[in-house]
Write a structure and sequence with these properties.
Number of domains: 1
Helix content: 55-70%
Oligomer: single chain
Number of helices: 5
Radius of gyration: 24 Å
Largest sheet: 3 strands, antiparallel
Number of strands: 3
Strand content: 5-15%
Shape: rod-shaped
Structural class: mainly alpha
Distance between the termini: 53 Å
Order of helices and strands: EEEHHHHH
């Protein structure tokens, strides 16, 4: 019994599975780039809220590189925002040395504000 079939028009090969011929389909090979926490957070968002976009990225073999780019952009934006806010608020190394608890409180507030901006503009956009 013939367990393999190739459609002459499309060139797609099929394998008999039970009573049905199923296409032999594989996803494109994709470079595996590391994805940080922000990229993982964006992945969860697009998987839940932008399903067609997620599926298109996945089936085209571009998901990993897209997430790595989003992760890098979000991280760069976060550090740039924190740096700008530190300058704007006048938070200095002198403050850190003289009043470390106040410095920690201000830095935590700035980091939270920067994280909210990154989430709104990159992660959940």
């Amino acid at each position: 019994m013939n367990q393999h079939y190739i459609d002459e028009k499309t060139g797609i090969s099929y394998t008999l599975q039970g009573d049905y011929y199923l296409p032999n389909i594989t996803l494109p090979v994709e470079e595996n780039k590391p994805i940080g926490i922000l990229g993982q957070r964006h992945l969860r968002y697009i998987r839940q809220h932008r399903k067609v976009f997620y599926t298109n990225l996945l089936t085209s073999g571009k998901l990993n590189s897209y997430l790595a780019d989003v992760d890098e952009q979000a991280e760069d934006m976060f550090f740039r925002l924190v740096e700008q806010m530190v300058k704007r608020e006048g938070i200095t190394e002198k403050l850190k040395a003289e009043q470390p608890m106040e410095w920690v409180g201000k830095m935590n507030a700035l980091r939270e504000a920067a994280a909210e901006i990154v989430n709104a503009e990159v992660i959940f956009a």
